[in-house]
Structure formats: structure tokens, C-alpha cells
# Entry
Amino acid sequence: MEYIAIVIGAIFVNNIVLAQFLGICPYMGVSSKVSTSVGMSGAVMFVMTLATVVTYLIYNYILVPFGVTYLQTISYILVISSLVQMVEIILKKVSPALFQALGIFLPLITTNCAIMGVALLTVQNEFNLLQGVVFAISHAIGFALAIILFAGIREHLDLMDVPKGMRGAPAALVVAGILALAFMGFAGLV
Amino acid sequence: MAKKESTFLNMVLTLMIVTVVASFTLASVYNLTKGPIELAREAKRQEAIMQVVPEFDRLETRMFLPVDGRDSLEFNFAFKNDELVGVAVGTYTNQGFSGRITAMVGFYPDGRIVDVVHLLHKETPGLGDKIEKSKSDWSNQFRNVDPREFSLRVKKDGGDVDAITAATITARAYCDAIQRAFSTFVANLTIEEGGLPL
Amino acid sequence: MSQLQNFTKGFIKENPVYILLLGLCPALGVTTSAFNGLGMGLATTFVLLGSNTVVSIIKDLIPSKVRIPSFIVIIASFVTIVQLTMEAFLPELFDALGLFIPLIVVNCLVLGRAEAFGSKKDTLSSVIDALGMGLGFALALTMLGGLREILGSYSLFGYKFIPGDGMLVFVLAPGAFIGMAYLIVLFNYLKKKTT
# Structure
């Protein structure tokens, strides 16, 4: 039962982008097309889950026993950037097309606050490893949901007559705001 | 660019040096700030305790494991002139809308609640943050309440607690924290004898 | 570019948040009040100053291939210093900013400046760039925080000027997005006007 609460909470109620404001940079950058959004979501899901697992292990089996929890920020970000490098290398070999499409956004996953955020939150919420994995995957799904929804809307928005001053980022942000408003309706779910 | 061998060595050496210097710096800063951090936390804790128990001149602290939950609760026994006047329990819940909420619940020796004050939370500003005394009187409804007669659940769940408008989850979580404090209190202390540990 | 131009570019022309669209996460996440926005802005400025300075001093000693990891370690160290110092001496701000303090390390602004300036330009320019960009960031966050606080809590820097709850939506997520959208429009306009 608790796992369902984690899943629903992460995807809808506490959506990583629309409620917790994490992952905004890639959100704004990649969401102009549905296809790149899907690709980005996949990469994020992979990195997020792996990063959460590794950082969880590092925190609980190295940082805490040695009393050096102040090294949390450094160790986490190093793990995440290494993982992203790995994903880049793998992606180049396995799917060059997707690699091309994601372009500079791949290294940007390193600075994707969502990955770091979820890793930090897992430890903060005192989950065990399995709960942490579920938490990470759910948040990745939440990210995917937000970004793909957004991309769908943006593809239409680009065809509309937006006032000149609002074109691009401002219009996109207003859409995000309305989406956030909509997602607030999920608050009573859990 | 240098030859491959030296490049590799340079890279490894640089990274090692940078990391070692960084770690040393951080360790020193950590040692410098450890004291003040402890002081700040202790001051906060003391302030919370003073808000939820009657006047005291001596504190004794013991930890008890709650029936449900992994973390122990901190029981602060407040004495005045060597007589127990109240117990301030540091409790928590992980069911807040935005995660963990910690609070300090003060009990009279007979188990009635003196008052509840929040410690840490990340609830929504304007909604869930009404658990804060500075934001709303909502948490005053727990004053002088006897949890054996007053059900510590929100009215929606069949209890006696008025929920916070549009922030039922937060209210429910706060009740969970208070209930945890009370259950642990009852499980470990004998109320009839004036609240001395079993 | 003169040092004066270097310093002031971060305020309007190249404002990190509203023109360069960097550091959006903390900009949206902590600006529930002007004070929080200012606090985060200054904390980030400290990290920027520290990392840009260190990077520009040792830039010739770092092999190109490991510069990003090295920068990251340096930045992360300064962030940890800010974390520890805040927890010790500014506990209320520390609690208010919460998760977003360690997240300064992934603020694209910080790594971006280290890469664009710290590793390429001289130390003085890097320091001034860091100061200008940092203060521009602080300005951006304080403005958004102020806007959201005025509309959402009828107060500014904690000083309440009308009793009552305010338009809550501004203190919540939607308000952040929408507030930022219009501030971007404002800054784009200001940028055009001052060029």
C-alpha cells in the first residue's frame, strides 16, 4: 500500500517539475518537440534510477559510517556526472540518431536538478533501497508525463499567434503554470 | 597536447589533488561549524520544549522507540523543584504533503496535551504551513486535550480534529505525529504514577 | 569590454534568469518570499565568487579533459561551505531554502560561468563577472520573490501591509511559473530599451 502512495505521490501529487520545480532547465529546453521529450525522459529515467541507487549506497554505507555526511553534495554530483558520461558513451554506440537528437541536452542532465534532487530526497525521506528505486522510477515517470504533455501543447502553441513579447519562454512558462495549477488538483489523491 | 602517458597521469594527478584539497578544506570548515550547528539546533530544541511544557528548571532526556516507525522519539522530562511538571516529546511523521514533519508535543504528567509546536516541515506555504503557530491558531485546538477521549484524527476520518482547509493531508500527518508521541508516551510511562518511566 | 560593463551586464542585458534562462529551478523553487529569494541569490553569489576565483587561478594547471569534473568538485566544495555555514549561523534561512542549497551545485549558471569566464579570462575579469552575474541573479530572485510575496501574502520582506491571506496561487507553483513568465517579458523589454 505504501508503495502505491509513493508512486502516485511522485507522479501526480508531488510532480517533480510542476510541484517541486526540479528539472526546469531541460524541461524548457527539450520540450519543443514530443519526440525529443520522449528521448530525454528515457535518458532521465535511466540516470535518475541508477543515480539514486548508487548515491543511496554511498550515503548509507560510506558517508554515514565514516561520519563524513558533509561530503554528500560532492559525492552525489560526481556520481551523477560520471553516470551521464556513461549514458552518453552508451547512447553514441547504441542509438546514434537519438544521440544526435538530444544534442547538448545530454550533458545537461548532469545539471538537471531533478536527478540530484531525487537522490537527496530519497535519503531525506529515509526510504530503504527498494522504496528508493520505486521513488526514483516514479519521479522519472512524473517528469516524462510533465514534459511530454508540455511538448504536445507547445507543438500546437508554435502554430498559434502569440503576442511578440510573449513568444518562446514566457508563453511556455504560462503554459507550465496552468499545467501546475491542473496538477494541484491531484492534491487530495493520497 | 602532451603525450598520452603524461596526459593520463596529469589528469589523474590533477583530479586527485583537487579532490584532496577540497576534502581537507571541507573537513576544516565542518570542524569549525560543527559547534555552532549543534548550538543552533540545541537552541531551537530548547525553545520548542519551553513552549510546550510548564515552567521547569531541569531537563532529563531519554529516547524511546515508537510502536510504529524507525526513529526513536526524544522524551524530555521537565522538572521543577524535582517534581515532574511535563514531558516534551520530539515526534515526527513522514506522511506530510511534502514529506517529513517534526514537532514537539508537550504532555502533562497525566497524559493530557499541554501544547504542540512544529519544528521542521516543508508543507505548502499558505496552506499546510498553518501548522505553524505564527501563521494560524489551528494548532491551539490540541491544548489541554486528553488523547484518551479526544480522537487524534481529522473529522473526515471520524476523529475530533478540525482539519486545515484545503490542507487535509498536512493536518492528518500532524495528527499522526501527535498520535505517535502519545502512543509512545502511554507505552513507556505509567500515567497514574505521575508519568514516571515504567 | 570594460570592467564596468563586465560588472553591470548581469543586471539586465545578460540577466542570468530572465535573459539567459539559467538557474530557473531555484528561481522558481525558493521565491515564495523576497527574503528567501535574496538569501538564495546571495548564497549563489558566494559560490560563484569562490568557484570563479579558484578556477581562474588554477586554470592553467588543469588538463582540458578533466576540467569539468574539476570545476564540479570546486563548485561542490563551495556549496558545501555555504551549506555548513548557513546551518550554523543562519538556521532559519537554512530551513527555508532547504533542498535548494545543495542544488546550487547543479545551477547551470555556476558551471556555465566557470566554463565561460573562469577558465578563459583573467582573474580580475572572472571575479567581477562572478560578482555581477551573482548580484544579477540575486536581483532576479528577489524581484520574483517580492512579486509573489506581495500578491500572495500581502507582505514584503515579512512586513505585512494588508491583513488577510493574499492570492495564494502566487505563493504556490502556478504563481512561480506565471510570475517568471511576465518578468521575462519585462526584462526583454528593459533590455531592448537600454541597448
Chain A is about 75% helix and 0% strand.
